[in-house]
Structure formats: structure tokens, C-alpha cells
Design brief:
Layout: H1 15-18, H2 22-25, H3 33-41, E1 53-67, E2 70-80, E3 87-95, H4 100-104, E4 115-116, E5 120-128, E6 140-143, E7 146-147, H5 153-156, H6 170-176, E8 182-183, E9 200-203, H7 206-209, E10 210-212, H8 220-223, H9 229-240, E11 247-251, H10 255-266, E12 271-276, H11 279-287, E13 291-294, H12 300-307, E14 314-317, H13 327-334, H14 343-351, E15 357-360, H15 373-378, E16 382-385, H16 390-402, E17 412-417, H17 421-430, E18 437-441, H18 443-451
Parallel strand pairs: 11-12, 11-14, 12-13, 14-15, 15-16, 17-18
Antiparallel strand pairs: 1-2, 1-4, 3-5, 3-9, 3-18, 5-6, 6-10, 7-8
The chain binds nicotinamide-adenine-dinucleotide and zinc ion (2 copies).
């Protein structure tokens, strides 16, 4: 059992130390929030324009959301530089995230018909605004899913997804008391920005929200997920405090859960358990060194107690609010008595060792019933959650990928043209044809490949 699994890992081995992640580690300390709020009131930072200007003479192929299980390819005018800190990206590859399935299944609030969706992509910089300093036209870049300003007190402390400037949603402020960052193609709760399952995407605060890929030997597939889930899965490990010798259980063996297992192994976890009900996903987890539990066959709590009687140091929820198991929560969600099912968290809190930690990386949006507050409190569990701090991690994680120390491409099962995105969503949602992660290629990707 590791005794100090929140803050310190074996620093000699720990990448956080190796690449100097102390600023992110400091997020374990309670931040003086009133100071931050005072700063914001006085903030001179100009929020980005949400709806960009468009060039009505050039068209962009995009994926539009039209309602539950209804996404359609459409032609829309191409975005152009709108704010001085913008860049316009000619997308080569994008992909579908488990978070996109919240919108696809009609579970995400704040969607409007014809919203352009998608938040993980990369491509080539076509144009930049006059204030962009670090990025040049022609650079190959990965786009961060969370949109950060890079200047507010949250961004300055590395907590980029808590950026105060990029999301103007009053609804979110009413729900949460605060607004977190804006995001591409992720409903009007996170600003209502156009998404990047598209040929062209406009990126505000380009210096902050783009990662330059200078090594042309790296394929799009190797680096694309730095825009979200590679960083997300790292974040799950940071939130849980996974380090050498830790024992870890990960609920969900979707793309995020699988990469969480990959990083747990990289960070030196002693035993890793992966829990899901889909055999091909569990098989992938085994390739990363995990022991697996199929919850459709075995009771998770009993099996975990047999396999590791004291309980794992860290339990990670990579499932989220939308999947329900039992009738109680299916019914409550159906009649809007609760928005988020807490079943995975319930299991995790029972399974985790006394004094252990539970990390919530799967998305939750609002409220749950029957949350096991007593078990959580009496066992002295620490629970942390949050959206990824993409920009804090991606430089370091790129180096690890570049060194060949990990290869996130093991989750890719399908590569399809962007024009087939509706089909790809259906497959990913239904998990048919063994679909785990789909890479969507634009026509421009083929042009780029031949010219390289
Ligand atoms: N916090 C962040 O920054 C962040 C970023 C990206 C994605 N996410 C979230 O992470 C979650 C996972 O994303 P993904 O792309 O892997 O999605 P996914 O939907 O493909 O994966 C979820 C997996 O959980 C499994 N599952 C369902 N119920 C379960 C249960 N009771 N126990 C164990 N496993 C169960 C499913 O079979 C599936 O394989 C989603 O909620 C997504 O929104 C969060
Ligand atoms: Zn995502
Ligand atoms: Zn900010």
C-alpha cells in the first residue's frame, strides 16, 4: 500500500518531476479563490468572439448535430481570422470522443440544431492573427479541446480547463456557481464554439491552444489524442495520485479508460484492474498489463475484494454519468429525478482501500441520488474530479510519445473519411464492429500525405 498517494510519487521516476510539473501538482493545495475572483472582476482580458467571421466564397465540410442520434455532414462557409489571437487550421485528422456521445444521445444540455460538433483534432495552420507569436503559417499543430485564454489566474496556475475568460454561459454559472472553460463543439454550456469535426477550424488564443508538432516522423495517429484523451488519461492518474507501487482500479475500458491504464503502467503502478463488459475492450486493457473484470459476468465488489482484499489505493471512474446499470437509476434518470447515475462511484467508494482516493475523469454534469456519502466519509476517502489540463501536460506527454515510451495508437480500431462521420458515430455509440476509437480523415489529409 502506498501511504502518500496524493501528492508525491517516487520523484526519481516521476515524470511530473522529470519535466517540472510542480505547478500542476500545486493544484492539490486549496487555492485562494477570493483572490482569483477579485482578479477577474478587474480583468482586462478580452473574451474571444464566439461566432467567427466566415468567408462565404469558400466552403468547409462539417458535422452538424440535429438531435438525438442525428448528426449530418453539411457544407458551411469557412471560418476566417476574427480576433487578433486567432489561427485558422486546415484539419487533417479528427476523432470522436466518449464525450461526443453525450450530445449524440441527447443527454447534453445547451445544444442547438446545426451546432458543429467535435473537439479533438489536428492539422496545418493556414492563417494567423496579428497577435499570434509562437505559431506560424504552415505549422503542424494539435488543437486543445478545452479553450483557454492563457492569461487569467486559473490559466497562469496551469488549471487551463478552469479558465475564466473563454466561456460566457450564464446557465453554467447558475448551475455550478462558476463557469469553467469554453470548449470546441461541446454545447452552449461551454460557450457554443464551432467544433472541429470539420475541414476548417478557427482557434482562439492560438498561442495557448495549439501544440506544435515539429517531428514529421510522428504520424497524426500518434499525436492526435494529445488534443484530449491522452492528456485526460494522464490527468486521471494525477487526480488519483498514481505512482510507483500503487494499486489502481479503472472502471470503463473505453478510449479514456484504456489510456488511463497505459499511463498507470507508465507511472509504475504495481497492479492495475480494468472493469468493463465488452470483451474486446478488456482484451486491449490486458495488452497494457491490466487484470480484467467483466461486470456482466462477475460482481465487481466481490471480485475486487477477492483479488485485492485490502482494496486498491486508487479507483478511477472513466465511465461517467450516462451509463446506468440497475433499474433504480435507469428509472430515476428517465423521469428526470436525477441527471447523473452514481453507480460506478458507489462501487468505487466501496472497493477503494480505507483512506484511498477516487478520481472522477468520466464526465458528470449535475446531480445524483443515493450517493454513498456515509461510506465516503467514514472510510476517509479523497475524491477529486475535473476536466483535463491539456496545456499543462501536452509538451511532456509529447516527449514521452516521441521517445517511444508509450504508443497511444493501440486504441484505434477504425480510420474513416470525415464524410462518413455519421456512420462512425453510430458504430462508436453501439460499440459495433469492435469499435473503440475512430480517426476521421479529411480530404486534405490525403493531399498532405502525398506532399510529405
Ligand atoms: N474529464 C475529462 O477531461 C474528460 C475528457 C474526455 C472524456 N471524458 C469522459 O470520459 C468518459 C469515458 O470516455 P470514453 O471515450 O472512454 O467513452 P466510452 O463511452 O467509449 O467508454 C465508456 C466505457 O465504460 C463502460 N461502462 C459502462 N458502464 C460501466 C460500468 N458500470 N462499469 C464499468 N464500465 C462501464 C462502457 O462499456 C464503455 O466501454 C466519458 O464520460 C467522457 O465524457 C472526460
Ligand atoms: Zn473529449
Ligand atoms: Zn484563462
Amino acid at each position: 500500500m502506498s501511504t502518500n498517494n496524493f501528492v508525491e510519487f517516487d520523484q526519481s521516476k516521476c515524470v511530473d518531476k522529470k519535466y517540472g510539473h510542480q505547478h500542476v501538482m500545486s493544484s492539490f493545495t486549496t487555492y485562494p479563490i477570493e483572490t482569483i475572483r477579485d482578479e477577474i472582476r478587474k480583468s482586462p482580458i478580452k473574451p474571444p468572439t464566439i461566432t467567427p467571421k466566415y468567408d462565404s466564397n469558400s466552403m468547409s465540410t462539417v458535422l452538424e448535430w440535429h438531435g438525438k442520434k442525428d448528426v449530418r455532414i453539411a457544407q458551411r462557409p469557412k471560418p476566417i481570422i476574427t480576433d487578433d489571437s486567432d489561427a485558422i487550421i486546415h484539419v487533417t485528422s479528427s476523432t470522436i470522443c466518449g464525450s461526443d456521445l453525450h450530445m449524440y444521445n441527447g443527454d447534453m444540455k445547451g445544444m442547438l440544431s446545426k451546432d458543429i460538433i467535435g473537439h479533438e483534432c489536428m492539422g496545418i495552420v493556414e492563417s494567423i492573427g496579428p497577435n499570434v507569436k509562437n505559431i506560424k503559417v504552415g505549422d503542424r499543430v494539435v488543437v486543445s479541446a478545452p479553450i483557454a485564454c492563457g492569461q487569467c489566474e486559473y490559466c497562469k496556475t496551469g488549471l487551463f480547463s478552469l479558465c475564466d475568460i473563454t466561456n460566457d454561459s450564464k446557465v453554467m454559472e447558475t448551475m455550478y456557481g462558476h463557469r469553467i472553460c469554453g470548449a470546441f463543439g461541446y454545447s452552449h454550456l461551454t460557450g457554443g464554439y464551432d467544433g472541429c469535426q470539420a475541414e476548417w477550424v478557427r482557434v482562439p488564443f492560438a498561442d495557448v491552444n495549439l501544440l506544435k508538432i515539429e517531428n514529421n516522423r510522428l504520424t497524426d495517429e500518434q499525436v492526435l489524442f494529445l488534443s484530449d484523451i491522452v492528456c485526460t488519461a494522464w490527468h486521471a492518474n494525477v487526480l488519483g495520485g498514481v505512482g510507483p507501487g500503487t494499486t489502481v482500479a479503472v472502471w470503463g475500458a473505453g478510449p479514456v479508460g484504456l489510456l488511463t491504464v497505459m499511463w498507470a503502467k507508465y507511472r509504475g503502478a504495481k497492479r492495475i484492474f480494468s472493469i468493463d463488459c465488452i470483451e474486446e475492450r478488456l482484451a486491449k486493457a490486458r495488452t497494457q498489463g491490466a487484470e480484467t473484470i467483466d461486470f456482466s459476468k462477475d460482481n465487481v465488489i466481490e471480485t475486487m475484494q477477492k483479488l485485492l482484499p485490502g482494496g486498491p489505493d486508487v479507483c478511477i471512474d472513466a465511465v461517467g454519468f450516462r451509463y446506468t446499470k440497475g433499474m433504480v437509476h435507469k428509472m430515476q434518470r428517465a423521469v428526470f429525478l436525477e441527471t447523473d447515475s452514481p453507480e460506478v462511484l458507489d462501487e468505487a467508494i466501496v472497493v477503494v482501500r480505507k483512506g484511498g482516493s477516487v478520481a472522477i475523469i468520466g464526465d458528470y454534469f449535475y446531480k445524483s441520488n443515493q450517493f454513498p456519502i456515509g461510506t465516503f466519509m467514514e472510510k476517509a476517502v479523497t475524491m477529486r474530479g475535473g476536466q483535463l489540463y491539456c496545456q499543462s501536460y501536452w509538451h511532456d506527454l509529447l516527449k514521452i510519445i516521441e521517445n517511444g515510451e508509450v504508443d497511444p495508437t493501440f486504441i484505434i480500431t477504425h480510420t474513416m473519411e470525415l464524410s462518413r462521420a455519421a456512420e462512425a458515430y453510430k458504430m462508436f455509440d453501439e460499440k459495433s464492429d469492435g469499435t473503440i476509437k475512430v480517426v476521421l480523415k479529411t480530404a486534405f489529409a490525403a493531399v498532405q500525405q502525398t506532399s510529405n
